[in-house]
Amino acid sequence: MSCEQLQGQPPPEDAVAHWIDGDSEWCLRPQSPTTSPSGDSAIGKFKEQAGCIAVWNLSPNIICKARSWCEGVELEGKAIEFVKKNAPSVPVPEVLYNWADPAWNRTFIIERRVPGECMNEAWTRMSTEQRTDLASQIAKHVVTLAKLKSRRCEKVTGAGITYEGPLLGGRFSWDFPLWQPLVHPPLTIEEVKERITKLTGEAPPDLGEYFLFTHALLVPPKIFVHMPAEKNGHVKLSCIIGWASAGYFPHWYIATNPRVNVFFGVENIEPPPQDQFDWTWILSDALIREGFSCEAHWWVKSREYGRKKNAAEHARREQE
């Protein structure tokens, strides 16, 4: 694809998307397969994560996000579209276009910049009371999302979820390159129970009758807020971004994942604050107050079992 600024002309017939940003009009159009990529990929880039995600400015209020992709991975835009239609009270980004490029093993999503300030950057200016109130706002949106149910652990399009850990199992590093998402097939209640039991050595907590839809990764960098003018004023949630992990999960996963997942800590603050991981407890507690159960003890025990099992398998393969 090629992003081009229009010079007072209507969008070309082959444009797949176009938008107005301030006084300028832009379009996105397919690039000829015979055209060699040009330009400097470092220009406009303002975020890169683990070699799998990068974000660029396209124009003052438009961004492009690229992330690793393989066959079977659902486009993030599908989840955002689903939320806008079925849970319109939940604040999500405006997506202009989303596509996958199999030749590059990447997805690209064009979005408008969201309002507010990233929670990760506002963290040190927020009091415990403000953080707790924000978590309560988010938890109520999570309740709204959880009203959307499925008989299978899957994505909104019916694709399998991309997840690693004691829920469905991770990967061995020799099986896949690290950039490649690990896609699980859609699984029924009984199939998830069987897989978890095999992975952890014991049956999981009760899975209920349905899997519940959730964002799955409500970490500080994916939460945007409006900070008040007064020091102790009301912090208002403005947007939730990063819906690539969203899908239907067990009901107890919703409050358990924040409690045990180190990725729920704030990032890139130097020196790291003493309360770097407080969000794991604050969000999890807010979700528990809304009725979601937390199975942290089982999760930690199962994760340790899985690590030992993976280590044993690694040692066996090394000897072959």
Describe the secondary structure blueprint for this structure.
Layout: E1 2-6, E2 17-21, E3 24-29, E4 45-49, E5 53-59, E6 62-68, H1 76-86, E7 95-101, E8 106-112, E9 117-118, H2 119-122, H3 128-146, E10 149-150, E11 152-153, E12 187-188, H4 189-200, E13 211-214, E14 223-226, E15 236-240, E16 247-249, H5 253-260, H6 278-289, H7 296-319
Helix pairs in contact: 3-6, 5-6
How does this structure look, described?
The protein is of the alpha+beta class and 320 residues long. It is built from seven helices and 16 strands. The chain has helices at 76-86, 119-122, 128-146, 189-200, 253-260, 278-289, 296-319; strands at 2-6, 17-21, 24-29, 45-49, 53-59, 62-68, 95-101, 106-112, 117-118, 149-150, 152-153, 187-188, 211-214, 223-226, 236-240, 247-249. The strands form five sheets. The protein has a five-stranded antiparallel β-sheet with strand order 4-5-6-8-7, with helices on one face. The chain has a three-stranded antiparallel β-sheet with strand order 1-3-2, with no helix packed on it. A three-stranded antiparallel β-sheet has the order 9-14-15. α3 crosses α6 and α5 packs antiparallel against α6. The protein is globular and about 65 Å long. The N and C termini lie far apart (45 Å). The relative contact order is 0.13.
Put the structure in a nutshell:
With 320 residues, this protein is of the alpha+beta class. The chain has helices at 76-86, 119-122, 128-146, 189-200, 253-260, 278-289, 296-319; strands at residues 2-6, 17-21, 24-29, 45-49, 53-59, 62-68, 95-101, 106-112, 117-118, 149-150, 152-153, 187-188, 211-214, 223-226, 236-240, 247-249.
